[in-house]
Amino acid sequence: MPRSLTTRVASVAVILLxxxxxxxxxxxxxxxxxxxxxxxxxxxxRGPLVADRGSWTADSELSFSYRWTRGGSPIKKAATKRYQxxxxxxxxxxxxxVTATDAEGESTVAxxxxxxxxxxxxELRQRPSLDGTRRYTRxxxxxxxxxxxxxxxxxxxxxxxxxxxxxxxxxxYRLRADDVGHHVKVxxxxxxxxxxxxxxxxxxxxEIMHRVGLRRTATYRIETRGTIxxxxxxxRRQVAQTFADPRGWRSAGVGFRRVKKGGDxxxxxxxxxxxxxxxxxxxxQWSCRVGRYVIINQLRxxxxxxxxxxxxxPLRTYRHMVVNHETGHWLGHGHLxxxxxxxxxxxxxxxxxxxxxxxxxxxxxPSELWYG
Length: 372
Description:
This protein is α+β, with helices and mostly antiparallel strands. Helix content is 16%, strand content 30%. Strands 5, 6, 8, 9 and 10 form a 5-stranded antiparallel sheet that branches.
């Protein structure tokens, strides 16, 4: 065999032998992923996610690195096994990219299935509550309760017997006349970035009470004088409503109970021409009080007074005023004047005859809430 050919054969044999021997020059196969990486944990804002690297050939001889992506793009400072979703992730898809590297520096990348990040839930830890005295004119204050994360904004809605009270959206609520005898509660709505809005309600209060407790009960009966053309059924009902209203003399601690006979005083619906028969000081134009008689002039009951009508005030409020005014005399109150231009008139002011700059008002002022 020629020397040149012998040399070439020997060289090939050496190369083949080297490839077959340990530590030979043949290239090693890169790592192979047999089970794809996955993500565990709830994909919600701030809900921790953990990457599972999946399964690999020669797993124990590999090193692993992680990179989280959002919509396919790498997320800055997100190169560990754990990741806490951020505000920018809400509504986007996340994946974890796992890189396996062997001892020779060969590497393979495998990617998890996508997960979509949702808003988290503000979990209620302690329901809202109400503080304060449950009496007319007093203030109730809402405690918004405790939540799994501190709310950024809190809004309030107040309810009476399950029906929302229009316009009341503050943390504090001053109890109204309409609340007396009813139940009140507050509904709190909480919001924070990254969380779904949530709401919770306080327990309802026990019945709201009058401004003060009952200190005295006065009995009255209904009478008439002269020819009556007004509805007596309505008269009896509306007089009783005025006496029971928390804005009236009940706020002075006086309760009123109608009786058929006797009674502490009489409420008389009188034909206008009969009013002077009770006393020379009484006029056929106006209502009057004489002794035990609270006399309501039928003319005024049916048509109110010129000044009341000129101010476009409802007839019903005039009826409240006239009953409160004349009953106030029976309770020991005298006439009062206007307390200042633009203020509400005292109910014991003769509002039908002049206001002196005050405004019509059918209810006793706080300064009038006493009885003799």
